[in-house]
Design goal:
By secondary structure, this protein is an alpha/beta fold. The chain has helices spanning 18-30, 46-53, 58-62, 70-74, 97-107, 126-129, 148-161, 176-192, 201-213, 219-241, and strands spanning 8-13, 35-39, 66-67, 79-83, 113-117, 134-136. 47% of the residues lie in helices and 11% in strands. The protein is globular. The model has no long low-confidence stretch (mean pLDDT 90).
Length: 242
């Protein structure tokens, strides 16, 4: 079972050079991806983008949405893969593109999947990566800096050529917008009961994100968790009134 490339999207977060946007569009076209978006780009020189995209991928540039925030750009997707060259004790565990390609191919049967790439200068921050359910690092022979468009091509190629494992039933996942609403509700409840540190709640929420990120949550399950949070908050408010 091959990936449904129509359900794969590429999101470029804060790209600095219009040539890289154009080259990324060409890579998407090569691999059958029609969904390319940019977030807060540094330079949107149309002529430079189209020159690198070539005539064949010009339609992707012409129809490319531009977002003000990464959360807005990925909100309608059911799954997001973040890319990073930085690893270490304080970074999330990552897979190689080949390791994750089969799983993404399987998810793409019923879900839209975003491949998220950071700025050429600083990549994706930890705050950016919180919006992604998984993280990928492209292996290199020591020099880890890879051109943005080359990174796009490597991930898209691996997914395009991958064979999805037989997972049995492929679920339709909750959207990232729904997940972010759930995490917001959880943070509010955790703060009210004193479970997480109010000085740095987002840091402590990463543990919750990693926990729930292990599961393929569907919309009805997200609604159930949010309903639980609402009841906790209502009960706490009622207790204060008595």
């Amino acid at each position: 079972m091959k990936a449904v490339m129509e359900n794969i999207g590429v999101v470029l977060h804060e790209p600095r050079y219009p040539e890289n946007i154009g080259a990324a569009a060409r890579c998407c076209k090569n691999m059958g991806i029609q969904d390319l978006a940019v977030v807060h780009p540094h330079d949107m020189d149309r002529e430079k983008m189209l020159k690198m995209a070539t005539h064949e991928a010009a339609e992707l540039i012409e129809g490319m949405p531009v977002y003000d925030s990464l959360e807005e750009a990925v909100s309608s997707f059911g799954y997001a893969v973040g890319t990073t060259a930085r690893t270490g004790r304080h970074r999330r565990p990552s897979d190689t593109p080949r390791d994750m390609a089969g799983y993404i191919a399987a998810l793409s049967q019923k879900n839209r999947v975003a491949l998220v790439f950071g700025s050429e200068k600083w990549g994706l921050t930890n705050d950016d990566l919180r919006l992604c359910q998984s993280v990928v690092t492209i292996p290199t022979a020591g020099f880890s800096s890879i051109n943005l468009a080359q990174s796009v091509m490597i991930l898209c190629y691996e997914i395009f050529t991958a064979h999805a494992p037989e997972l049995g039933f492929t679920p339709r996942l909750a959207s990232i917008r729904e997940l972010e609403g759930m995490y917001g509700h959880l943070k509010e409840a955790f703060l009210k009961i004193g479970l997480i540190d109010s000085q740095n709640p987002d840091h402590w929420m990463m543990n919750a994100r990693r926990l729930f990120g292990r599961f393929e949550l569907r919309a009805k399950e997200v609604k159930l968790i949010r309903g639980f949070c609402r009841q906790v908050l209502w009960a706490l408010q009622a207790m204060r009134k008595t």
